[in-house]
Amino acid sequence: MPELPEVEVTRRSFSARIAGxxxxxxxxxxxxxxxxxxxxxxxxxRLVTDVERRGKYLLLHFDRGLLLLHLGMSGxxxxxxxxxxxxxxxxxxxxxxxxxLRLHDPxxxxxxxxxxxxxxxVLHKLLGHLGMEPLSQEFSxxxxxxxxxxxxxxxxxxxxxxxxxxxxxNIYASEALFRAGxxxxxxxxxxxxxxxxxLHAAIVAVLEQAVSLGGSTLRDFQSADGSAGHxxxxxxxxxxAGAPCHTCSAPIKMLRQGQRSSFYCPVCQRP
DNA sequence: ATTCTCACCTGCGGGC
DNA sequence: TGCCCGCAGGTGAGAA
Length: 271
What we know:
Blueprint: H1 4-18, E1 23-28, E2 48-54, E3 57-62, E4 66-70, E5 76-80, E6 90-96, E7 99-104, E8 111-115, H2 121-127, H3 141-149, H4 155-161, H5 170-180, H6 193-212, E9 253-257, E10 260-264
Antiparallel strand pairs: 1-6, 2-3, 3-4, 4-8, 5-7, 6-7, 9-10
The chain binds a DNA duplex (16 and 16 nucleotides) through residues 1-3, 6, 33, 56, 70-75, 89, 105-110, 125-126, 151-153, 157, 160-162, 169-172, 215-216, 218-219, 221, 238, 258-261.
Protein backbone atom coordinates (compact mmCIF):
# COMPACT_ATOMS: atom_id res chain seq x y z
CA MET A 1 0.00 0.00 0.00
CA PRO A 2 2.21 2.75 1.18
CA GLU A 3 4.66 4.71 -0.89
CA LEU A 4 5.76 8.21 0.02
CA PRO A 5 2.40 9.88 -0.69
CA GLU A 6 0.41 7.45 1.43
CA VAL A 7 2.91 7.70 4.29
CA GLU A 8 2.96 11.49 4.09
CA VAL A 9 -0.82 11.71 3.93
CA THR A 10 -0.98 9.43 6.96
CA ARG A 11 1.52 11.59 8.82
CA ARG A 12 -0.42 14.76 8.12
CA SER A 13 -3.67 13.15 9.20
CA PHE A 14 -2.61 12.69 12.82
CA SER A 15 0.65 14.48 13.62
CA ALA A 16 -0.96 17.68 14.88
CA ARG A 17 -3.48 15.75 16.96
CA ILE A 18 -0.93 13.49 18.63
CA ALA A 19 1.73 16.13 19.26
CA GLY A 20 1.81 16.92 22.96
CA UNK A 21 0.13 13.67 23.98
CA UNK A 22 1.31 11.65 26.97
CA UNK A 23 1.67 7.90 26.50
CA UNK A 24 -0.54 5.84 28.81
CA UNK A 25 0.52 2.42 27.55
CA UNK A 26 0.97 0.17 24.54
CA UNK A 27 -0.50 -3.13 23.37
CA UNK A 28 1.06 -5.66 21.02
CA UNK A 29 -0.61 -8.07 18.60
CA UNK A 30 1.19 -10.60 16.43
CA UNK A 31 4.88 -10.11 15.68
CA UNK A 32 5.78 -7.68 12.93
CA UNK A 33 8.93 -7.59 10.81
CA UNK A 34 11.17 -6.82 13.78
CA UNK A 35 10.71 -6.94 17.54
CA UNK A 36 9.67 -3.71 19.22
CA UNK A 37 13.00 -3.55 21.02
CA UNK A 38 11.67 -2.39 24.38
CA UNK A 39 9.08 -3.27 26.98
CA UNK A 40 5.73 -1.68 26.07
CA UNK A 41 5.41 -0.45 29.64
CA UNK A 42 8.64 1.51 29.25
CA UNK A 43 6.82 3.87 26.89
CA UNK A 44 4.42 5.03 29.61
CA UNK A 45 4.73 8.66 30.59
CA ARG A 46 6.68 9.72 27.53
CA LEU A 47 5.59 12.87 25.70
CA VAL A 48 4.99 12.81 21.94
CA THR A 49 6.77 15.79 20.41
CA ASP A 50 6.23 15.37 16.67
CA VAL A 51 5.88 12.96 13.75
CA GLU A 52 8.50 13.06 11.03
CA ARG A 53 8.71 11.15 7.76
CA ARG A 54 11.91 9.76 6.25
CA GLY A 55 11.30 7.92 2.99
CA LYS A 56 8.48 5.51 3.77
CA TYR A 57 9.24 5.46 7.50
CA LEU A 58 7.43 7.51 10.12
CA LEU A 59 9.40 8.68 13.13
CA LEU A 60 7.25 9.19 16.21
CA HIS A 61 9.44 11.39 18.38
CA PHE A 62 9.15 11.46 22.15
CA ASP A 63 10.77 13.80 24.64
CA ARG A 64 13.31 11.00 24.91
CA GLY A 65 13.63 8.37 22.18
CA LEU A 66 11.46 7.60 19.16
CA LEU A 67 9.42 4.89 17.52
CA LEU A 68 10.17 3.98 13.93
CA LEU A 69 6.99 2.97 12.10
CA HIS A 70 6.76 1.29 8.70
CA LEU A 71 3.56 0.29 6.93
CA GLY A 72 5.07 -2.49 4.80
CA MET A 73 2.81 -3.54 1.92
CA SER A 74 -0.54 -3.61 3.65
CA GLY A 75 -0.26 -1.43 6.73
CA UNK A 76 -2.29 1.57 7.79
CA UNK A 77 -2.54 3.70 10.91
CA UNK A 78 -5.59 4.89 12.76
CA UNK A 79 -5.67 7.61 15.38
CA UNK A 80 -8.93 8.13 17.23
CA UNK A 81 -10.36 8.85 20.66
CA UNK A 82 -11.96 5.43 20.72
CA UNK A 83 -10.98 2.29 18.85
CA UNK A 84 -12.65 -1.13 18.75
CA UNK A 85 -10.92 -4.06 20.45
CA UNK A 86 -7.80 -5.23 18.62
CA UNK A 87 -8.64 -7.56 15.72
CA UNK A 88 -6.50 -10.32 14.22
CA UNK A 89 -4.69 -7.81 11.97
CA UNK A 90 -4.09 -5.11 14.57
CA UNK A 91 -0.55 -5.46 15.87
CA UNK A 92 0.33 -2.32 17.79
CA UNK A 93 -1.67 0.16 19.85
CA UNK A 94 -0.19 3.24 21.48
CA UNK A 95 -2.58 4.58 24.07
CA UNK A 96 -2.29 8.28 24.88
CA UNK A 97 -4.32 10.91 26.68
CA UNK A 98 -5.28 12.34 23.27
CA UNK A 99 -6.31 9.13 21.57
CA UNK A 100 -5.18 5.72 20.43
CA LEU A 101 -2.75 5.12 17.58
CA ARG A 102 -3.14 1.71 15.94
CA LEU A 103 -1.16 -0.14 13.28
CA HIS A 104 -3.35 -2.42 11.15
CA ASP A 105 -1.35 -4.67 8.82
CA PRO A 106 -2.73 -7.97 7.45
CA UNK A 107 0.54 -9.08 5.84
CA UNK A 108 2.74 -7.96 8.74
CA UNK A 109 5.59 -6.64 6.58
CA UNK A 110 5.33 -3.47 8.61
CA UNK A 111 7.30 -2.61 11.70
CA UNK A 112 7.33 -0.68 14.93
CA UNK A 113 10.82 -0.34 16.38
CA UNK A 114 12.05 1.53 19.42
CA UNK A 115 15.13 3.72 19.17
CA UNK A 116 16.35 5.09 22.50
CA UNK A 117 18.14 8.05 20.92
CA UNK A 118 19.14 9.58 17.60
CA UNK A 119 22.32 7.52 17.41
CA UNK A 120 20.68 4.15 18.04
CA UNK A 121 22.17 1.44 15.79
CA VAL A 122 18.71 0.50 14.50
CA LEU A 123 18.39 3.95 12.95
CA HIS A 124 21.63 3.51 11.06
CA LYS A 125 20.59 0.04 9.95
CA LEU A 126 17.20 1.12 8.62
CA LEU A 127 17.74 4.73 7.57
CA GLY A 128 21.48 5.04 7.05
CA HIS A 129 21.54 4.12 3.38
CA LEU A 130 18.49 6.11 2.29
CA GLY A 131 18.80 8.57 -0.56
CA MET A 132 17.45 12.06 -1.16
CA GLU A 133 14.00 13.21 -0.08
CA PRO A 134 12.25 13.94 -3.38
CA LEU A 135 10.02 16.69 -1.97
CA SER A 136 12.86 18.57 -0.32
CA GLN A 137 15.48 21.01 -1.56
CA GLU A 138 18.19 18.36 -1.39
CA PHE A 139 16.67 16.54 -4.38
CA SER A 140 18.69 18.42 -6.97
CA UNK A 141 18.85 17.61 -10.65
CA UNK A 142 22.64 17.61 -10.51
CA UNK A 143 22.83 14.99 -7.77
CA UNK A 144 20.07 12.93 -9.37
CA UNK A 145 21.81 12.95 -12.75
CA UNK A 146 25.13 12.03 -11.18
CA UNK A 147 23.54 9.11 -9.33
CA UNK A 148 21.92 7.76 -12.47
CA UNK A 149 25.13 8.11 -14.45
CA UNK A 150 27.04 6.10 -11.85
CA UNK A 151 24.54 3.22 -11.89
CA UNK A 152 24.69 0.12 -14.02
CA UNK A 153 21.17 -0.99 -13.13
CA UNK A 154 17.96 -0.49 -15.02
CA UNK A 155 16.08 2.67 -14.11
CA UNK A 156 13.08 0.96 -12.52
CA UNK A 157 15.33 -0.81 -10.00
CA UNK A 158 17.25 2.38 -9.25
CA UNK A 159 14.03 4.19 -8.41
CA UNK A 160 12.72 1.34 -6.26
CA UNK A 161 15.98 0.83 -4.37
CA UNK A 162 15.73 4.10 -2.44
CA UNK A 163 19.50 4.51 -2.53
CA UNK A 164 19.37 7.54 -4.78
CA UNK A 165 15.91 8.93 -4.05
CA UNK A 166 13.46 7.64 -1.44
CA UNK A 167 9.72 7.14 -1.38
CA UNK A 168 9.17 6.00 -4.96
CA UNK A 169 7.54 2.58 -5.01
CA ASN A 170 5.97 0.41 -7.67
CA ILE A 171 3.05 2.67 -8.52
CA TYR A 172 4.85 5.99 -8.69
CA ALA A 173 7.93 4.59 -10.42
CA SER A 174 5.75 3.43 -13.30
CA GLU A 175 3.86 6.72 -13.34
CA ALA A 176 6.97 8.90 -13.24
CA LEU A 177 8.65 6.89 -16.01
CA PHE A 178 5.55 7.30 -18.16
CA ARG A 179 5.54 11.05 -17.69
CA ALA A 180 9.24 11.19 -18.57
CA GLY A 181 8.81 8.99 -21.65
CA UNK A 182 11.33 6.41 -20.41
CA UNK A 183 10.83 2.67 -20.60
CA UNK A 184 11.27 0.86 -17.24
CA UNK A 185 13.95 -1.42 -18.72
CA UNK A 186 16.28 1.41 -19.78
CA UNK A 187 19.74 1.37 -18.23
CA UNK A 188 19.92 4.28 -15.78
CA UNK A 189 23.36 5.35 -16.93
CA UNK A 190 22.26 5.56 -20.56
CA UNK A 191 19.48 8.10 -20.10
CA UNK A 192 20.37 11.42 -21.72
CA UNK A 193 20.31 14.74 -19.87
CA UNK A 194 17.02 15.88 -21.34
CA UNK A 195 15.15 12.80 -20.22
CA UNK A 196 16.95 12.77 -16.86
CA UNK A 197 15.64 16.28 -16.28
CA UNK A 198 12.17 15.17 -17.33
CA LEU A 199 12.31 12.23 -14.94
CA HIS A 200 13.51 14.41 -12.07
CA ALA A 201 10.59 16.77 -12.62
CA ALA A 202 8.16 13.88 -13.11
CA ILE A 203 9.08 12.27 -9.78
CA VAL A 204 8.40 15.50 -7.93
CA ALA A 205 5.21 16.21 -9.85
CA VAL A 206 3.68 12.76 -9.50
CA LEU A 207 4.45 12.54 -5.78
CA GLU A 208 3.10 16.02 -5.11
CA GLN A 209 -0.05 15.29 -7.08
CA ALA A 210 -0.54 12.03 -5.21
CA VAL A 211 -0.14 13.72 -1.84
CA SER A 212 -2.67 16.36 -2.82
CA LEU A 213 -5.12 13.62 -3.84
CA GLY A 214 -4.74 11.78 -0.55
CA GLY A 215 -2.54 8.98 -1.94
CA SER A 216 -3.69 5.86 -3.79
CA THR A 217 -6.33 3.54 -2.40
CA LEU A 218 -6.00 0.29 -4.35
CA ARG A 219 -7.46 -2.07 -1.80
CA ASP A 220 -7.95 -0.66 1.62
CA PHE A 221 -5.54 2.19 2.25
CA GLN A 222 -6.82 4.95 4.45
CA SER A 223 -5.10 7.70 6.39
CA ALA A 224 -5.14 7.89 10.16
CA ASP A 225 -8.43 9.79 10.15
CA GLY A 226 -10.09 7.17 7.95
CA SER A 227 -10.15 8.96 4.59
CA ALA A 228 -9.26 7.17 1.34
CA GLY A 229 -7.00 8.39 -1.48
CA HIS A 230 -7.91 9.10 -5.08
CA UNK A 231 -4.66 9.18 -7.07
CA UNK A 232 -5.37 5.75 -8.58
CA UNK A 233 -8.13 7.36 -10.65
CA UNK A 234 -5.57 9.51 -12.46
CA UNK A 235 -2.94 6.80 -12.99
CA UNK A 236 -1.75 6.68 -16.58
CA UNK A 237 -0.23 3.20 -16.63
CA UNK A 238 -0.21 1.44 -13.24
CA UNK A 239 -2.75 -1.38 -13.23
CA UNK A 240 -3.90 -0.54 -16.77
CA ALA A 241 -2.41 -3.43 -18.78
CA GLY A 242 -4.30 -3.77 -22.06
CA ALA A 243 -6.14 -0.49 -21.62
CA PRO A 244 -5.52 2.34 -24.11
CA CYS A 245 -2.82 4.90 -23.35
CA HIS A 246 -4.36 8.24 -22.38
CA THR A 247 -1.94 9.95 -24.77
CA CYS A 248 -1.71 7.74 -27.87
CA SER A 249 -4.33 5.00 -27.37
CA ALA A 250 -1.81 2.18 -27.74
CA PRO A 251 -2.48 -0.70 -25.31
CA ILE A 252 -0.52 -0.37 -22.06
CA LYS A 253 1.92 -3.22 -21.52
CA MET A 254 2.90 -5.03 -18.33
CA LEU A 255 6.21 -6.77 -17.74
CA ARG A 256 7.78 -8.58 -14.80
CA GLN A 257 11.07 -7.32 -13.42
CA GLY A 258 12.24 -9.56 -10.64
CA GLN A 259 9.19 -10.09 -8.50
CA ARG A 260 7.54 -6.79 -9.43
CA SER A 261 5.38 -5.73 -12.32
CA SER A 262 5.96 -2.61 -14.38
CA PHE A 263 3.47 -0.88 -16.64
CA TYR A 264 4.38 1.27 -19.61
CA CYS A 265 3.19 2.57 -22.96
CA PRO A 266 5.25 0.96 -25.76
CA VAL A 267 4.78 4.04 -27.94
CA CYS A 268 5.18 6.96 -25.53
CA GLN A 269 8.05 5.39 -23.57
CA ARG A 270 11.25 4.74 -25.51
CA PRO A 271 14.01 2.37 -24.37
C1' DA B 1 31.41 -2.57 -3.93
C1' DT B 2 27.49 -3.07 -6.38
C1' DT B 3 23.76 -5.77 -8.08
C1' DC B 4 20.35 -9.43 -7.92
C1' DT B 5 17.23 -12.79 -5.71
C1' DC B 6 14.80 -14.35 -1.99
C1' DA B 7 12.04 -14.40 2.07
C1' DC B 8 8.81 -12.63 5.12
C1' DC B 9 2.83 -13.06 5.52
C1' DT B 10 -2.08 -12.93 4.45
C1' DG B 11 -5.98 -12.32 1.36
C1' DC B 12 -8.18 -12.13 -2.96
C1' DG B 13 -9.60 -13.13 -7.63
C1' DG B 14 -9.44 -16.19 -11.60
C1' DG B 15 -9.46 -20.72 -13.65
C1' DC B 16 -10.61 -25.43 -13.34
C1' DT C 1 -18.68 -24.81 -4.04
C1' DG C 2 -13.89 -25.64 -3.29
C1' DC C 3 -8.99 -25.89 -4.37
C1' DC C 4 -4.73 -24.27 -6.37
C1' DC C 5 -2.17 -20.70 -8.42
C1' DG C 6 -0.54 -16.19 -9.15
C1' DC C 7 -0.54 -11.73 -7.65
C1' DA C 8 -0.40 -7.54 -4.35
C1' DG C 9 1.62 -0.70 -2.48
C1' DG C 10 8.38 -2.98 0.68
C1' DT C 11 12.93 -3.96 1.82
C1' DG C 12 16.78 -6.14 4.57
C1' DA C 13 19.77 -10.16 4.21
C1' DG C 14 22.57 -12.93 1.85
C1' DA C 15 24.42 -14.63 -2.42
C1' DA C 16 26.69 -13.73 -6.68
